[in-house]
Amino acid sequence: MKIRKTDYGTIILHWLLVAAIGVATFTGLRIATEGPYHLWVNELDSFLPSTHVWVPHMQSAVVQVAAMIAYTVYLARSGLSRRVQLDKNRLRGLLGKRTQRLGAFGAILMWTFFLSMIAMIVTGSLLYLGVFPNHFVRQVHWYGTWTIVGFIGLHVLNHFAIGGSTQLMRVFRPDKLPAPPPRLDAVELLTMLVEQSERLGSEPEPAAKPPAARPAPPMRAMPIQVPLQPAPAAPLQAANVAPAYEPTFGRLPLPDRQDPPWKGGDRNDEGDEAPWKSGSARPQARRAPAKRRNPTFQANPLVVAAAVAITGASLMFASDWLSSDTLVIHRIDAADAPVLDGDTSDRVWRNIEPISVLTNQGGNLDGKGDSRVEIRAAHDGEWAYFLFTWEDPTRSLKQLPMVKERNGWHLLQNGYWNGDEHDYNEDKFSVLFTTLDVTLAGDRTFHASPEAVSDAPTTKTGRGLHYTPEAGIYADVWQWKATSGGPTGWLDDDHFGPPLPPTPQQARNLVPYKGGFEPDPGTANYSDNFVVDIDTDGNRNVTPRRLPKDVAAMTKAMGDISLDPNVGESDGARWFMSEAESVPYSAEADQAIPIGTVIPGVIIAGDYTGDRADVRCAARWAAGHWALEVARRLDTHSKYDIPFKSGIYMRVSVFDHVQVRHTRHVRPIRVEVE
What we know:
The protein is an alpha+beta fold. Helix content is 28%, strand content 18%. The chain has 3 domains: 6-175, Fumarate Reductase Cytochrome B subunit (Up-down Bundle); 325-392 and 427-520 and 611-674, Sandwich (Immunoglobulin-like), CATH 2.60.40.1190; 397-421 and 526-605, no CATH class.
């Protein structure tokens, strides 16, 4: 059995691309589990990475681009482009013999792979840079992944059908690169055909055969007849005999190469007329072989391909560095500080050019999951001020309201018991600051997989958890909420830290485990307006904490009530109750409330205190956009807060009436302070 081999360059580039595609596929599937529509991928949890996801995914993408560039150059320089050539003759092979059909099918597969890789590279770049509304882009990237996975299976089967296991083992058996076939030179080919024609035309015709001598008539006078000998034929001149020409079909016999007529015209080196012009035979002198063009490139196609690929990858890194988003916190006078009222018309904001970030992969947002965020920032030497504006089609204030039915109170929810409410939740906005000097901070503050922390409960959402890699490292997290605290002028100051031990209720999976996400020390002014009891049958019974003193007044304060989660609330509406306008729950007060009454799920009482009270805010919604003004001291001197200085990193996320399905962006924003 003949042992089949493949050249070194093909083997090296083949396995480099296989490794890069493998890393990109597994990390990409893990990233997909964090989106709202691909949680089924968690069935592959034991095969998918959890600690390092985003950074390897981006690095493998760069390797894929470099490998594709290198393979293209390698095919061109090594003369192996016939492997993937897809022309009319190759397509006709689909109707030919088995080997022709397999070859044609293999070429079609390779071009399907090339086009899929181009689509993945383009869409991945758009998702990474965040420069294009990307619901469609994300879908193309998702389907491209499965196209490449399908190609791998068909590619292996096709090669097995061509030559069995021997064909498949070629990618493990290296050999030298075969010499490329000589290029077709049309002029030289025509010259050789002319020479052949002249050589055939100069051959003499064969000499005519003399007629045989006729025998003499018999002599009558002699009784005995004696046979006469024929007259001797004229001797043939051997010099005039030419062998018969035996034609060959499909290929002309090639004569020894001679200097073509354009080398000196019709004269020889001495300037005399060439002898063949006067009918004599042309001298048969062999021409020296032509020099190969670019001998270094021809001799080292893999080296050339690697050099071009490395150059391309370097340009990608340089372009990424030069195009990174930077937020400048501009210096202003204290007298020019904006008023925190949610109004974007302050002079300071009019004079600052915002940076724009496209966030994606969130829940709702008209089903697209995308929201563009614009950010402006300023400081007066003591306080830092931010203006965030983002796209949100509805003003959503319904934070887990309750409705009274004949059999009691019911909590309006769709996923809350699993920590993944995505209907009856308030709009939220989150900001993260970190000093972790990494290109993709997500791998330092977020860890995918439902079992992201060992010896801790599995997440009820099937998604990952936020926490930092080691003790003493914190990421500063702000959370504005449209109903809980936000309308009273406070923005929740939280942090990501090392994983926390689960509480007794978390250990029993009664409430979701949150990893290292925790509010800063202190208190907030809001709380849930319901208590949940689980009976022996596992049923959840909901009871309000407080009931409105005046049901009609509370109903009026909630505005135009619609229990459709995709219908926003009217201007001026509020979906919380204060202690002053409510009473503790009692059976007597409950009986006075009619069936069908809707009451808020949030109680406002007390005030923010401690480190949790470091951030003040105000927000307004209009024409499909939220505007949020925020103020915090440049340095709070809390270990849970990040001081504002040049070199820190920032991220933003949008929640459209969802609990955890927020939007995200890949590249962090670098902060510079004037």
